[in-house]
Amino acid sequence: MSNNSNLFLSIGKPIKDEYGRIIGKVASFALTPSGKFDSVFIEFNSGQFSKQPMEHLKFNGAEVTFISKITSQANVLCDQIPLIWRKNQALKDLAGKNKISPDLYQELHNSFEGVLNQLKKDAQVITDEAAAEIADCEEEIKTLSYAVVNLELEHEIGQVNEEAYKSAFTMLQDTLKRATAERSALELTRSKLSNILLGDTLQPAQKTKTVAEPINEANELPEPPVVVYVKEIGKAGI
């Protein structure tokens, strides 16, 4: 049995998204023959069941958090793209120092380039999905803002009593904060991916090492392009 057998205690427990909204509950787990947790079955609030990879969920005691596809895949891409770029650059350095044959260099270089191109395509897909989600968040924030204004107006003229007003106002403000936090997180994710792609596009213009330069005694890989994460001006932050 897996060392994570206590995860069975989360069956029936609510699942929240990254922004605190309850989206469903844990229905069951799928395990490999060796007892390793492979995936989790989720009953969403709509009544729909779905099988999700374990890496899409974070377990912290009784709390279960669902990590969105955009967040989880963006995190992987932000790690993999700079790593493959560094390996490709290190390969060029080795070829420049005549430490590998031209044929072997070309074979490995083509392999790295193929992987890197696919990762960049995946990153563009996630960037586009994040942009669509941001647009949805902005529409939700606009609707919530109108709802707050209308609640204030009706309360001001006495159409809504104090108790109902406070309850509705708190609900709207909490939802508005979650929507704003989600938009900010998506904007940051989009910015990180865009800057990593931009850094990779600009990297050929950077100075590369030559054979005459000293060998790094620690055999460290070259640093990837410098990436500066910039939030767009005028967007709400968290």
Could you walk me through the main structural features you see in this protein, from its secondary elements to its overall organization?
This protein is an alpha+beta fold. The chain has 2 domains: 5-67, SH3 type barrels; 70-205. Helix content is 52%, strand content 14%. The chain contains 3 helices and 6 strands. Strands 4-3-2-1-6-5 form a 6-stranded mixed sheet, with no helix packed on it. Helix 1 (69-96) runs antiparallel to helix 2, helix 1 runs parallel beside helix 3 and helix 2 runs antiparallel to helix 3 (162-202). The longest helix is centred in the middle third of the chain and has 55 residues, at 102-156. The chain is flat and about 85 Å long. Mean pLDDT is 83; it is low at 201-238.
Quick structural overview:
The chain contains three helices and six strands, in the order ββββββααα. With 238 residues, the protein is of the alpha+beta class.
What is the N-to-C order of secondary-structure elements (H for helix, E for strand)? EEEEEEHHH
The helix/strand class is: alpha+beta
Radius of gyration: 24 Å
Shape: flat
Indicate the mean pLDDT.
83
* Largest sheet data: 6 strands, mixed
Strand arrangement in the largest pleated sheet: 4-3-2-1-6-5
Please indicate the count of domains: 2
Number of helices: 3
- Counting copies of identical and different chains, the oligomeric state is single chain
What's the β-strand tally? 6
Helix content: 40-55%
Describe how the helices and strands are arranged.
Blueprint (H helix, E strand, L loop, with lengths): L13 E3 L5 E10 L5 E8 L4 E5 L3 E4 L2 E4 L2 H28 L5 H55 L5 H41 L36
Parallel strand pairs: 1-6
Antiparallel strand pairs: 1-2, 2-3, 3-4, 5-6
Helix pairs in contact: 1-2, 1-3, 2-3
